[in-house]
Structure formats: structure tokens, C-alpha cells
Amino acid sequence: MPLAVRRIAHATPDYDTMVALRRAILRTPLGLDFTADQLTAEAGDVHLAAFAGDELIGTVVLTPYKEATFKLRQMAVADSHRGRAVGTQLLMAAEHTARGEGATRILLAARVTARDFYARHGYEVEGEAYIEVTLPHVTMSKVLKSSDAA
User: For the N-acetyltransferase domain, which residue ranges apply (predicted)?
Assistant: First the structure.
């Protein structure tokens, strides 16, 4: 089944499904959850979701950060669809979207276990590892070039 990535509006049923996926993959295993304030603060973010047919199987959030920079956050892919390049397609869609919004750089906090995934896509580590949401993370970034294919 072909994969489609599309932008999702905040506070819609698809957004709620995205939050449920992010909660299941990124928060619940750590004994954490989102606060109402955290979700409300996402109103100005760009929400992208990957769909296999009607099923939402992946998500990523782009948060405006500084001039011409977005923070890439909350990348999650359903366990049933891992290993099928869903993360890569979400990342490419996020870069394309950020470029379209005038960004020239993406910054992210990668779990150390995901560092190699981002490195394969041109992201570089900035600084030392640190703990965030109970796990080791590294800050990574990529300069977006207009020649990068999305």
C-alpha cells in the first residue's frame, strides 16, 4: 500500500490520533505523558503524518525556533511499520515542508539510539550527550540546501 504524508491541523481528530501514536511510542514506555499545556503549545507547530491507506502510521512535528530554523520533534512510527522507510519519508517531507516555510536549518534532539538514522540523512551532532525525558540524547542539525531532494 502506498504511503502518503500530509499536514495535519492542530486539535482535529487526526491530530488526536497523532498524539495517541506519539504517546504510545515515545512517552508511555518511559512512564511519561503529555500535559495539556504541552499539547496546547503545539497549536503553532507544523504536524505531519504518514498514512498507509486510512491508517495513521507515523508522525513528526516541526516547531518554529529561530529565524530560518525549525526544531524537528516527536518523530514516531508505529511498531507495525518500522523498517519500511516510513521514518525516512517523514524526514524528507519535514525537510521539504521546512524549506517551503523559509527554513535553512533543522535542529533536533535525537535519542542516542536514533543518532545513526539522522546521521545517514546528513544531520551532524552538536555537543555532548545529555539526558532528556529520562534517556540520553544528542543535539543534531542539518543545513537545508535548495538542491536537497525532498
Answer: 3-145
Distance CA 15, CA 122 (A): 29
In order of their start, the domains of the chain are 3-103 (3.40.630.30)
pLDDT at 1 (0 to 100): 59
Average confidence (pLDDT) over 75-103 = 94
pLDDT tens per residue across span 97-126: 999 999 999 999 999 999 999 999 999 999
Task: Check pLDDT > 80 for residue 143.
Answer: yes
Amino acid at 124: E
pLDDT at 147: 58
DSSP secondary structure, 109-144, as one string: EEEGGGHHHHHHTT-EEEEEEEEETTEEEEEEEEEP
Q: What is the pTM of this model?
A: 0.92
> Is 12:47 a contact under the CB 8 Å cutoff?
no
- How distant, in Å, are the alpha carbons of 9, 64, 69, 85, 91 from that of 146? 26, 19, 14, 23, 16
- How far out from the chain centre does Cα 40 lie? 17
Do the Cβ atoms of 42 and 61 come closer than 8 Å?
yes
Nearest to 76 by CA among 41, 105, 114: 114
